[in-house]
Automatic annotation (TrEMBL):
Belongs to the binding-protein-dependent transport system permease family. LivHM subfamily. Keywords: Amino-acid transport, Cell membrane, Membrane, Transmembrane, Transmembrane helix, Transport. It holds the Pfam family BPD_transp_2. This is Putative ABC transporter subunit.
Length: 340
């Protein structure tokens, strides 16, 4: 039972990333009708926002420390981070320690701006073009962004550790008498993803802006005839989708050290998640993300890989084939989406 529950937790952890990326993909497709193959690159950029904030907070200057001596008795030169010099050692050290969560404050405006630039500068010119053209141009953009990250940060993964207070494990089964130690940061990531997902759904469901966006997704022409600038609202939703992907990347860094190809690694799987959930269905994308994450977790167990070698690499695609054979529109797909 302990091992079973741990595999479910592992699946929810991986599924959280799938669900967040798939949610952003579906937002863009549902509002703009664009198949955005650059969305994985936005996930990667978010992770490197955390790397950048961590490096920025770690910038230091040299001071002479009279209290420390070398073997000749000379005072030592020591590096002092600027944040410690400005805020004091205790607070400065704490700020550096919490660099990844603090990166959220930087990532949101950065990703919204990148989303606006992408949509206004490139994507808007492909609204009326075939989906194949959209895939080609956004895939090319993803490669360009990937190479820019590689040129500036190198090809090797960069460690972005979580705060010291979240580096341990928590026995999540103690309340029911089970021994289920699980990394605190992975639990944090899952809860964070739930907050983001619920926030997006609440925004679309309970705000006037969100109601107009949902109406525009259902019948764009009618909304425009009412004198509402639906294009501007869809552009804002592109920025929101970019921010969701970026936030997913920021918080995923301590789980899997950021590297320049992490966006591509998640992109293909996330598109499978979107198709399984149903093109244009936000609840379907989230549901499929968590379900496929759990299936992948169980397929990665020693028993599964010994019985069926390589099953952990193909399980998601096998499930996608079965689902699409039984339900061609996906689990919660809407009629008429990509069926013309």
């Amino acid at each position: 039972m302990d091992a079973f529950i741990l595999q479910i937790l592992n699946g929810l952890d991986k599924g959280s990333a799938y669900a967040l990326i798939a949610l952003g993909l579906t937002l863009i497709f549902g509002t703009l009708g664009v198949v955005n193959f650059a969305h994985g690159a936005l996930f990667m950029i978010g992770a490197f926002c955390a790397v950048s904030v961590q490096k920025l907070l770690s910038l230091s200057y040299i001071v002479i420390d009279e209290t420390q001596k070398d073997f000749l008795g000379n005072p030592l030169k020591v590096e002092v981070p600027y944040v410690e010099g400005i805020f004091g050692k205790a607070l400065g050290t704490s700020i550096i320690d919490w660099a990844v969560p603090l990166a959220i404050l930087v990532t949101i405006p950065v990703m919204v701006l990148i989303g606006f630039v992408m949509e206004r500068g490139l994507i808007k010119h492909f609204y009326k073009r075939p989906h194949a053209d959209q895939i080609l141009v956004t895939f090319g953009l993803a490669i360009v962004l990937q190479e820019i990250i590689k040129a500036n940060f190198g090809a090797n993964p960069i460690q972005t550790p979580p705060p010291d207070a979240m580096m341990g494990v928590l026995n999540v089964g103690a309340a029911v008498g089970l021994d289920l130690p699980y990394p605190i940061w992975r639990i944090t990531y899952f809860l964070f993803s739930l907050i983001i997902i619920c926030g997006v759904f609440a925004f679309l469901q309970f705000t006037t802006f969100g109601m107009v966006v949902r109406a525009g997704m259902a019948d764009r022409e009618t909304v425009q005839m009412l004198g509402i600038n639906i294009d501007r609202r869809f552009t804002i939703m592109f920025g929101v989708a970019a921010a969701v992907a970026g936030l997913a990347g920021v918080m995923y860094g301590p789980i899997n050290p950021p590297n320049y190809h992490m966006g591509m690694d998640f992109l293909v799987l996330s598109f499978v998640v979107v198709v399984v959930g149903g093109m244009g269905s936000l609840p379907g994308a989230v549901l499929a993300g968590f379900l496929l994450g759990i299936l992948e977790s169980f397929a990665s167990t020693t028993w599964a890989t010994t019985t069926l070698p390589g099953i952990n690499q193909v399980i998601i695609y096998l499930v996608a084939i079965v689902v699409l054979l039984l339900r061609p529109r996906g689990l919660m797909g809407r009629k008429g989406v990509m069926e013309e």
